[in-house]
Amino acid sequence: MSARCSHGGPGCRGSRGPQVNQCPTMLGEGGQMYAVISGHRPRSPDGVLRGSGRHPCRGCHGRRGRLESDEPASVPGMLGEWRSRTSGPGRGVYDLVPVPGRVLSLRRGLSQVEPPWTELRMKAPIPGTTDEPTGPVGSSPSLSRLLSGPTGLGTKSLRFTPAMEPEPVPVPAPDAQSPPLAALPEPGPRPASQRIEGLYCPPAVRDDRALADEINDRLVQWAEQEVGLYPDTDLREALVGFDAGRSVVLCHPDAPGIDHLMAAARLLIGENAVDDYFCEAEYGGSADRRGAVLIVAQSAIDPAHNTPRYEADWRAGIEAHPALRSMRSAMDYFYALATPAQAHRFRHDIANLYLGYNAEGDCISRQRTPAVWEYLVQRQFNSFRPCLTLTDSIGGYELPAQLFADPGVQRAVALSSNASTICNDLYSLRKEQASGRFHYSLPTVIAAEEECSIEEAFQKAVEVHNEIVHRFEEQAAALSVTNPLTARFVTGLHNWMTGNHEWHAGNVGTRYATSP
């Protein structure tokens, strides 16, 4: 990230000379944080995001230089708001200002968080528009709107600030070949949900049934017309019944529009298609032959590069299978709104997911129940992590790679994805046991290791889940005071974890159950 200082200092290489700042945040005198907020900004030909804000340049003995564009006036965090000291162009000096209700004990961390979200509601696209990914958001008003936090039904009681009227969201030009889409009705009432007794998880911040239904309708259109995901109407009903639309609405309340939610939904469906077709016996999958097909599945999002002849064969192979077509298409949509670093992050997380699939396949093929510690290691890879780490991409901003790689952030990612996946273990236990196949999950491995009943093991698994959630809350609370972008990212992880729990609870009685 390049900056030009507004003064000449020893580190500035001359008056108003260029200075390269390798770090997006630096700590100034008195503990205040000087932050550069990296949204979707125009890139230079070398692909570098150009940020803005004031900073204490090291060679200038802490005197403030300036970068060259606008910053938001405030950024919501989990412990307070990062508020700019200045107004107008050149914002960038931020202090963490505690908000009533958000000075938290470390032990409970985010469990007491009540974000001061403004009540904004995502609107349906106007009739005649298409689901093309939106362009980069670079203007200060747009960025301020995105950073205002989760929106929509169910957030009014969480407000500390007056409601703001959002600026109109730019809508892409209509595509003459695409059928018009009807406007969404007003969101209906929140569906009833049943939670597992004693399972700790704060409530989701937004639910919108009408928006979820619109996403489901568009998913069916994509599955049938673009990728041919399923061969018959029974599978169409299964796709709609899975309710991926509600999942992404719950898990990504800060998404700036329906295109971002659709990107998350397509990837979710693509990942499930790979799991179903290559890992589940009902669709022809096999536990002992996953490796070869999963490598090919990875190439659907991480393209092969060799010779024209064999690349053509590879492309034909991808197009020949519905799961591979789905992942390839979903990734193409994701490329349109993500940065190269975010796309690379997703590819890496999917490779780790497939590594977890292979570990599970090895145990299933030998009908071996792993030890609890080994199972938890497997589950950290075979988890929802790829869905959680999309939170900044779907939220319309970017957590820079050097911040994402921070060990504290990685710990928060691991804990939130582990808790989310164990939540699935608990709600799906009855369904898996009823299948008659060899299966293992956290309750079953605890039952085997401790020689206890499945009911007792279920309660022990609930306790493990709760402890992991509390540890995530502690980690996220500590990270939230370090940097406004990191604060927003861990808020996104928290939103995904709580939305995932609400989605599972809302499917009790049809897909899931609250007891073994």
UniProtKB/TrEMBL annotation:
Pfam families, per database record: Terpene_syn_C_2
Domain of life: Bacteria
Region (Disordered): 45-86, 122-192
Biased composition (Basic residues): 52-64
Family, as annotated: Belongs to the terpene synthase family. 2-methylisoborneol synthase subfamily.
Catalytic activities: (E)-2-methylgeranyl diphosphate + H2O = 2-methylisoborneol + diphosphate
Keyword Endoplasmic reticulum in record: no
Cofactor(s) needed by this chain: Mg(2+)
EC number of the protein: 4.2.3.-
Protein name: Terpene synthase
